[in-house]
């Protein structure tokens, strides 16, 4: 990696932070009310290290094996890792080797597998419940109508610490449809804070990525997941990196 590349990463990271601050101000909140999780998907460890040197401490990964390898390569750096992609129950052990947070809890079997492993390790885990706010069959996440019952089930898993919700908006140029997805999640969060057993602990809303994070913040996001706006576009489609996804 060149010094120019490292400088570009730092510059784009500053630009994203500035845009987060502006969007937060438009929603009547300070910049500190929004947590930036920098998505390192397909990004080489040395380029991630450049972002760390520029002050980024929150990192997110979509794939367990990639996250584990990257965390090992960056061992000793002052960072916190979030698992933000779909997690298979048989990958729980590997995910917990590096993840301090899971943003994609979407089913009872995964909650059970996580809790069982965490009890063995003697530790807890912050989790966000993933909700399918767009209603697309291609997306993971609970249907909105199933969230209340799922939150009640989670009380049986004492090693899990539910902190809020995550969603992916519909991928569309229709900004009002994107906003609608974010508003669906915000309404779920607001109701859960009043009615769910976890109450006000469910304050977090993880929504918004490189193409829509400013809209998400305007609609109440407390966490945004941004990668390509800092590291640049991936040179190849996801199917190149993960052939099983294309299959």
TrEMBL record:
**Which Gene3D superfamilies does UniProt cross-reference here?**
Alanine racemase (3.20.20.10)
In this protein, which residues make up the domain named Alanine racemase N-terminal?
A: 13-235
Pfam families in the record, alphabetically? Ala_racemase_N
* Superkingdom assignment: Bacteria
| Record key words, sorted | Pyridoxal phosphate
InterPro entries named in the record: Ala_racemase_N (IPR001608), PLP-binding_barrel (IPR029066), PyrdxlP_homeostasis (IPR011078)
Sequence positions bearing N6-(pyridoxal phosphate)lysine: 41
- Assigned protein family: Belongs to the pyridoxal phosphate-binding protein YggS/PROSC family.
| Biological role stated in the UniProt entry | Pyridoxal 5'-phosphate (PLP)-binding protein, which is involved in PLP homeostasis.
What protein name is recorded for this chain? Pyridoxal phosphate homeostasis protein
Record organism? Azospirillum oleiclasticum
């Amino acid at each position: 990696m060149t010094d120019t590349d490292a400088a570009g990463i730092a510059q784009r990271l500053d630009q994203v932070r500035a845009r987060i601050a502006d969007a937060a101000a438009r929603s009547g909140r300070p910049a500190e009310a929004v947590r930036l999780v920098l998505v390192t998907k397909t990004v080489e460890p040395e380029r991630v290290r450049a972002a760390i040197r520029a002050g980024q401490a929150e990192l997110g990964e979509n794939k367990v094996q990639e996250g584990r390898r990257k965390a090992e390569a960056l061992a000793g750096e002052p960072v916190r890792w979030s698992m933000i992609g779909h997690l298979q129950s048989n990958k729980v052990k590997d995910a917990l080797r590096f993840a301090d947070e899971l943003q994609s809890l979407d089913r009872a079997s995964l909650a059970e597998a996580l809790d069982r492993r965490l009890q063995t390790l003697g530790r807890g885990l912050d989790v966000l419940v993933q909700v399918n706010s767009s209603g697309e069959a291609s997306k993971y996440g609970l249907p909105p109508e199933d969230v209340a019952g799922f939150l009640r089930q989670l009380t049986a898993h004492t090693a899990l610490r539910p902190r809020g919700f995550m969603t992916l908006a519909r991928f569309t140029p229709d900004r009002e449809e994107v906003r609608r997805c974010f508003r669906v999640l915000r309404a779920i969060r607001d109701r859960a804070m009043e009615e769910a057993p976890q109450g006000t602990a469910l304050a977090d809303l993880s929504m918004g990525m490189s193409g829509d994070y400013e809209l998400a913040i305007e609609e109440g996001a407390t966490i945004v997941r941004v990668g390509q706006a800092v590291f640049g576009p991936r040179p190849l489609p996801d199917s190149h990196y993960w052939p099983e996804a294309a299959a």
